[in-house]
């Protein structure tokens, strides 16, 4: 059985942080050949300047407790990738700053069962990320993806909207896009956001930066059987960052 964990970087268990960094390096540096400042191909982990602070990390663990997926969520009220690394992908004056809009990045998954079908899918972690963002009062997720990945999102059943500048260079194979995380989106995906959220084991006091409200842990079947618990209860809820235009992201968003 897989487990989904979530928390800010400092709140995740040290072994999870270690394996998450190694997984990200394997996927984004070794496999996708991203050129990330300060991270060499021979390094053992991949982190950047956006990983700390209020950023929330999702980690998927396989049945044998190996990291098999990751994603991170950042509020757009602070620094985030689209604004600070890829501003050329949006039009002048169109950069977003709203407590109801969060950015999804570093998304990758393999060997994780689709919550709808039980079959393994590279998109299986996405509904969990959407449900967690929704618990922070997010209405929309934004992100930067390659055009092939944008097509994968749409095939998954998402109404992916381009939010990028019409004047972006034609050589750029990455685009800025958004996904609504309203109830209608989950209905279309045949997923219940409450059930998804309840199956996430949360570390630390995860709260919306805007409201300050924290989300208490709730015992669920997934949480009850997770090896990462506190006593008898699950722990509480809580590019190249300059890889730039010339890079092609083959399987995930940034």
From TrEMBL:
InterPro entries: Acyl_CoA_acyltransferase, Autoind_synth_CS, Autoind_synthase. Its EC number is 2.3.1.184. It catalyses: a fatty acyl-[ACP] + S-adenosyl-L-methionine = an N-acyl-L-homoserine lactone + S-methyl-5'-thioadenosine + holo-[ACP] + H(+). Residues 214-241 are annotated as: Disordered. Gene3D superfamilies: 3.40.630.30. It holds the Pfam family Autoind_synth. Signal peptide: none annotated. GO terms for molecular function: N-acyl homoserine lactone synthase activity. GO terms for biological process: quorum sensing; signal transduction. SUPFAM superfamilies: Acyl-CoA N-acyltransferases (Nat) (SSF55729). Belongs to the autoinducer synthase family. This is Acyl-homoserine-lactone synthase. It comes from Paraburkholderia fungorum.
